[in-house]
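Bench notes, afternoon.
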Amino acid sequence: MEQHQPEFNLSEYLHIIKSRKEIIAIFFLVTVFVVTVGSFLMRPVYRATVTLLVDLESPNVLNASDSSMALGTTNYYTYKEYLQSQKEIVKSRNIARQVLDEFKLAETKEYLRAKDPIKKFLKDVNVETIRDTRLMNLSVDNKNAKLAAEIANRLAEIYVDRNLAYIAKSEIINLHKNEYLKLQAKLSEYSKVYKDKHPKMIRLKEEIAQLASLVKEEQEKAAGARFSFPSGEMDVSSAFLSGLKANNITIQDAADVPTSPIKPKKRLNILMSLFVGLFGGIGLAFFLEYLEGTVKGIDDVDRLVKWPFLGNVPRINDAGKETTEVQRDLFVHSNPLDPVSEAYRAIRTSVSFSSTEEHPLKSIIITSPGPQEGKTTSLCNLGIAMAQNQRKVLLVDADMRKPRLHEIFKNKNNVGLSTYLSGQAGIDELAQKTEIDNLFLVTGGPFPPNPSELLSSHKMKEFIDASKKKFDFILVDTPPIAVVTDAAILSGALDGTIIVLQSGKTSIRALPWVDQTLKDARGRIVGVLINQISPELTSYQYYHYYGKKTTKQTFKDFFKKS
């Protein structure tokens, strides 16, 4: 048979969503509820913003053209670096400490639990430059709107004052430098007239040394001026500061008391919760599907092994009937017009197509990876479907450890396969009639001490060869292949093996092992059938295998069945 090729499976994905809709709904509702309640219970946070004008160069000071302090060239990159430096200065710990002390924030409930109050405060301070302008926004977040504005304004004032003090210190340095240059020029003139040990030369050199030391000291102070000047204790004379015309950093707009909070953003939060709740729930559904690791459809099989696909069998109870185990085993006989019966007839056809002149298919093992995955039910119903097609069919119960076929068809089990293989009965005593025309049964017989040895014996081969002459098909029920070796032993001796998987139960991880086990036993895999599959996946596989189902039809069927 032609191998099924895996491809994008929209119907299977929709089935996963539908099968786990309760989990998706719970996740969605919990997410929306928690976010909504949290947004309304959360205490609002306000943001107050001060706008600062930042120039790279300071204006002239002291009315002296030679004393202007050049902070750097005015090219773009220098200015960008300068702005970045200013942002770091605004958020310095020394400035933050002064604000905390003035407003006594460290004593408030919000800061008492903080290991580092300054670090906590700086998290609420944000500094941003406005693109293509010389403006800089200084923002402070606080749960008290009025306090946010007061802190922002005070923080800006402290920053501007410290910058002004820095400029003042720089101007003092410039004055000392000018005086130093004058003394150096005077020393040069004196050296032409006086010798080094002349009193005037000695006195002038002492003045130059003192001034050089003073310049160095002032430079060191200026380097830390923006960080180390305590408020009201700046080491600059008031007379000197009063002579300054302007500062290169000024407050353009003071912060107003904010009227609306920046968070929580209730509408946005609720909207995002709807999005996260829906897609998070769907993601959780697929994650659980992955963790579960069970076969859902043929695409799961094709990803790991390449077995011919015989068909899907829908869930029997989806027909609205509660059925017992025996009723499920004889479902095709009692419900010939049901979709489940039609599925087994389709599988019957697929099996017939697998039989060729070179490789005739008369004796078939029907097994499954694990227990209770529908192998016996599939064997019975497939056998009934073949018998209804006027084929003489023999069902053989080779699961001698847990024989069930005699219970299903209500036959005696005192004589069966085990009694024949152990030499206690003849071959002509084995086959029993059932209530279904053309369908015969060989029961498992009493439990023997060595089932595997009996199945691998020469008498088993003789039994199969003799039965082939009397029946069109021989279907052999074996224990699960992953439980005992019986199925593997028989697979090499019979014409083929049908593997039965149960949707939502058979482990995906078992498939490669089963495949390798049958290959090692040189068994021929006729194909795989998947039972207990959902109706929408059954529909999908039909269209997927024999044609193409449109996306529109897929969605239509999904919402119709939801």
